[in-house]
Write a sequence for this structure.
């Protein structure tokens, strides 16, 4: 009985093995690829990694950093929005700077009021008082002179009628009245002359200094509103209301470094592609007049012809490494810029990596 069971199990095992061998031996059709891999369209084309940018005839994207530090209180734009030059983008808390600007403006206005007061001298009322003091001193002099004349005439007629002491006092009174009159006349002339030219000049300098300080504070106050430096489109906003930003930018949680607060590009009728050509392939680049290229969007079958724009004539270190052990870490690349009209059917955005083949005519 035991031998029969072993024989049956052996036969079942053999049959199972034959069936498995047959099933796994059947040829299976390969799954079609999700997209056709990019192939070199040129006989001697050069491959390069490319990154899509906004079409900048004068460089790269516009990285906006604030000139002052502060907390964002309002963001007036959204990503993807077209803006005109001078459009307010965001606002920071300016309460302290606003108070400083108002204080310096008030100081400048006070200095101007004092300057106008100095230039308006002499004041009519002050001049009238000085003239009245001259008249009073003159009247006192006449009174003292009359008294002296009377005492002197009496002394001349009969010396014993007036004491020598009274005569001397009368003469002294006349001299004192004459001195008072001279002081009053000089005070009148001083009042009539108005403010001293040096006082006016000094006040003018103070007013000009305070005015410039006020203008500087007002200009600094305007920096708390960041405005678009040119026409373009908002590509990225890297901060939120309540975030603290400084002249170095804003802190990026993912990269743990400083990034621009806002990134802008020019209107996106055309987009640009910046290709990085390995330094060992630079000599194989076609002449600029014969250069042509095609761009392949990764993960799709889309291929877009490119229009040559310029070569950025500066070989710089490569910033994107493939993490392969055989790749040189000191490789340098030459940026070549192409442009293309933004396609209607394919979705492409600045910052997207693409494959580019460059050939010659």
């Amino acid at each position: 009985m035991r031998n029969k069971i072993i024989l049956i199990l052996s036969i079942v095992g053999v049959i199972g093995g034959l069936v498995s061998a047959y099933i796994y031996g059947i040829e299976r059709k390969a799954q079609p690829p999700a997209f056709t891999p990019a192939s070199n369209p040129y006989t001697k084309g050069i491959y390069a990694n490319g990154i899509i940018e906004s079409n900048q005839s004068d460089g790269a994207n516009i990285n906006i950093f604030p000139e002052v530090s502060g907390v964002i209180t309002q963001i007036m734009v959204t990503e993807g929005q077209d803006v005109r030059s001078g459009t307010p983008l965001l606002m920071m808390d300016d309460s302290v700077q606003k108070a400083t600007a108002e204080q310096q403006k008030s100081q400048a206005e006070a200095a101007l009021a004092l300057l106008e007061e100095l230039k308006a001298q002499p004041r009519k009322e002050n001049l009238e008082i000085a003239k009245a003091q001259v008249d009073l001193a003159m009247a006192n002099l006449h009174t003292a002179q009359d008294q002296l004349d009377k005492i002197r005439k009496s002394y001349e007629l009969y010396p014993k009628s007036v004491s020598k002491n009274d005569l001397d006092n009368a003469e002294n009174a006349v001299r004192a009245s004459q001195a008072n009159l001279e002081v009053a006349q000089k005070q009148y002339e001083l009042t009539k002359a108005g403010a001293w030219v040096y006082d006016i000049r000094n006040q003018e300098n103070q007013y000009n200094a305070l005015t410039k300080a006020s203008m500087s504070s007002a200009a600094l106050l305007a920096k708390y509103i960041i405005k678009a430096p040119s026409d373009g489109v908002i590509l990225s906003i890297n901060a939120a209301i309540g975030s603290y930003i400084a002249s170095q930018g804003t802190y990026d949680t993912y990269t743990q470094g400083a990034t621009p607060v806002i990134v802008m590009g020019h209107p996106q009728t055309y987009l640009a592609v910046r290709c990085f050509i390995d330094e060992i392939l630079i000599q194989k680049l076609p002449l600029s007049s014969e250069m042509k290229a095609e761009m392949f969007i990764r993960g799709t079958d889309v291929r877009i012809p490119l229009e040559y724009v310029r070569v950025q004539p500066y070989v710089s270190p490569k910033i994107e490494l493939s993490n392969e052990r055989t790749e040189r870490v000191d490789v340098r690349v030459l940026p070549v810029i192409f442009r293309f009209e933004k396609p209607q059917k394919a979705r492409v955005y600045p910052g997207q990596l693409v494959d580019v083949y460059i050939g010659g005519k």
About this structure: The chain has a mean pLDDT of 85. DSSP finds five helices and 17 strands in the chain. The helical segments are 2-25, 95-120, 124-157, 164-193, 197-222. The two ends are 86 Å apart (CA to CA).
